[in-house]
Amino acid sequence: MQLIDIGVNLTNSSFHDQQAAVVERAVEAGVAQLVLTGTSLAVSHEALALCKRLDERGQRLFCTAGVHPHDAKSWSGDSERELRQLLGHPRVKAVGECGLDFNRDFSPRPQQEQALEAQLALAAELRLPVFLHERDASERLLAILKGYRDHLPAAVVHCFTGERQALFAYLDLDLHIGITGWICDERRGTHLHPLVGSIPTGRLMLESDAPYLLPRSLRPKPKNGRNEPAFLPEVLREVALHRGETIEQTAAHTTACARAFFNLPEVC
């Protein structure tokens, strides 16, 4: 049984000098491949460098490259040129993390939308899938995506935590859905329990979003409170439970979906 973690923030400072051990623990736990998240141009370069350094054979580590809405205020023509160059590397499998965040508004909303549209246009031109972020902005994100969707090969709403209306609107637009340890949180994630069963096979993927979103149902919990890709089987367990599937069934179809979405090789 293999899993693919489609969203790992391995460049985060909490993993400093421990990245190789984190990857090793993930592989031992059955997480055969990891997609490292690029949240800014600098982080995207770091993620690509980690892929090259920790996986010389090019079978296990891949990454995205993009500018998160929190950093959209830094977007410029130079950003687009630099991102285009990053997206030309074979280890970079998607554009993003990009999108809209109207919850924290770390960047002004017009600048978030400008950076998102520029990245969607790049994805459409280069025929790359898109790794999307959305918080409190589903209606606006959908409105923007509709103008690009026919030209994009695929797009995933990463770390979906929304309500039924948003989920079905995303599915109607033929988007993929990423589920994290949020579903394991008895305080705020139980609304996902009935929803996850409505995501069609072939549109659902799993992610840790490590070091964030440690599954609260995990036992024993790590003393440092840090999430790791090695804990992705706990997300798998919860998702399988609420889909009425065996763990093996959910692992098989979510892994096949991620491998096809990101165009990842089979692991020998």
Question: Nutshell version of this structure?
Answer:
The chain has 268 residues and is of the alpha/beta class.
Widest β-sheet, arrangement of strands: 1-2-3-4-5-6-7-8
Find the structural class using helix and strand composition: alpha/beta
Q: Termini, distance in Å?
A: 13 Å
In CATH terms, what is the architecture?
Answer: Alpha-Beta Barrel
Kindly report the CATH topology: TIM Barrel
Quick one: CATH superfamily?
Metal-dependent hydrolases
Poorly predicted runs of 5 or more residues: none
> Can you tell me the number of structural domains?
1
Element-by-element helix/strand order: EHEHEHEHEHEHEHEHH
Proportion in β-strands = 15-25%
Kindly state the percentage of residues in helix. Answer: 25-40%
> Number of helical runs?
9
Average pLDDT score: 97
Name of the CATH class:
Alpha Beta
Measured on Cα atoms, how large is the radius of gyration? 17 Å
Number of strands: 8
Largest sheet properties: 8 strands, parallel
Shape: globular
